[in-house]
Amino acid sequence: MFVQLQATQGFPGQTIGRAHIGIRMIGELDLKAFSNVCRQKFPKDDAEVESVKLCSKWQNEISNPNWHPFAVATVNGKESEVIREDDKKLQELKEEYGEEAYAAVTTALTELNEHTISGSRVPFPEMWNHKEGRKANRKEIVQHVIQLSMVSK
């Protein structure tokens, strides 16, 4: 996959025509969620700065290896890790900033937990099928790179 990502480095997130393949950072917080919350809580002039601060704070929390807000649960007969509903940090986030910010953080945590073997919680790039909301397969990636190379000629 690394080679495939290198081949598209000149086109991060770029799509052409009806293409829907691009690079997505797995585990990266969605700033839009924090912007929406901060527009409701802060004066207009402060909202953007506060949303960036809040998003950065929570991205750092996610990357903290000492914080493990997961519990082992049986889901469909298989043991897996799920977000602990009683995690103090997450509860405080939800109470202070609402469901949208909470969902952004728990989504990023879950993605990183599911997609990394090493236990590292640092966002990483992945070729993504945005139309279908999933990791792009090799065939889609190759087709996308060919399309991009034809457009750049």
From TrEMBL:
GO biological process terms, semicolon-separated: gene silencing by siRNA-directed DNA methylation
Span of domain Factor of DNA methylation 1-5/IDN2: 24-148
Domain of life: Eukaryota
Official protein name in the record: Factor of DNA methylation 1-5/IDN2 domain-containing protein
Organism: Lolium multiflorum (Italian ryegrass)
